[in-house]
Design a protein that fits this description.
The structure holds two protein chains of two kinds.
Chain A (H helix, E strand, L loop, with lengths): L2 H15 L10 H6 L4 H25 L8 H23 L1 H7 L10 H9 L6 H31 L1 E2 L2 E2 L14 H18 L4
Antiparallel strand pairs in A: 1-2
Helix pairs in contact in A: 1-7, 3-4, 3-6, 3-7, 4-5, 4-6
Chain B lengths: L2 H11 L10 H6 L4 H30 L8 H23 L1 H7 L2 H4 L4 H12 L4 H29 L11 H16 L6
The chains are: A mainly alpha, B mainly alpha.
Chain lengths: ~200, ~190
Amino acid sequence: MSSKNSNWTIFMRGLVKENPIFVMLLGMCPTLGVTTSALNGLGMGLATLFVLILSNTAISLIKTLIPDQVRIPAYIVVIASFVTMVDLLMAAYWQPMHEKLGLFIPLIVVNCIILGRAEAFAAKSSTLQAVIDGLSMGIGFTWALALLGGTRELLGSGAIFDYPLVGEDASTMLLFIMPPGAFLALGYLALIINKLRGVK
Amino acid sequence: MDYLHIIIAAVFVNNIVLAQFLGICPFLGVSNRISTSIGMGGAVLFVMTLATLVTFILRKLILTPLSIEFMQTVTFILVIAALVQLVEIVLKKVAPPLYQALGIFLPLITTNCAVLGVALLSVQKEFNLMESLLFAVANALGFTLALVLFAGLREQLELVELPHAVRGVPIAMVVAGILSLAFMGFSGIV
């Protein structure tokens, strides 16, 4: 397989086949916690995407310098530094989103997707491939979050990306933007995706 | 804020798993049996209380005096990772039966976002030392409660014949949703 071809394979993998949320079930806390609207899901997804690309790049660059025994703490420090950067950057340039996501931004540190990709992929691959993998997993995470957020926003407040689709006095299923709705919406989405993947 | 208020709010009204979505990974991962849920709950109680204590002291004595609060995330996660290792080593030496009981759950706690979440939340809520500790204990109890209830439901679910497409994640999520709905009944009592 030519190298261009294998890069393409790496890129496609995170989007659907090994989608971090629907297939690998990683990073469930922000997935359920912030997806009250499509925009929140998108914001969280982009913040994670940013950290994922940077941490994958950094870790694949320094992978030969880190002794094997202390690699996990070393990865965590690298990830935590990038998360702090994203936290400060968002507070400065995207303040409304920073307020909405709140606690979940520092919690990107403990998102299993990022440490998982560092350990399973970036530590063993070339920098270019690690960047592609970070991009792919990040985009896979972002679309899944935006889809879940969009579903909840549509059912719960009758809007999509804050654009109202129903009249002001229409009654919507408020349950879906409350905590139980997060579990229910993800459960049914996972069921639909299972069906689409051909599970009987 | 008085102490009873903090406890009831953390255990029932704002349950850390079912209302705040922290610690979902162990909630879904290790809640197949009631006995393992209790083990995980015990380990979390231990680490969460210690982590909140240590991060509180570090923040008061080092981060705030030097005005480097932006280092909070990095410091806290390192403290938690180190603490988990330390607890593991000490328990192995001092209390082998407890170590055996908590065994596999201890390393998992580093990536449990509930621990970091509670440490960050008690900073955000500007609690004093006593309130922070109480908040940590109450949240750990809330975590254990949610985990044990969910494990009980899943033990029963195993006896039911389900279509293949519903098995695993979808049914777990829907059951968690119903449990979360039940906990919403507590809202407004404090």
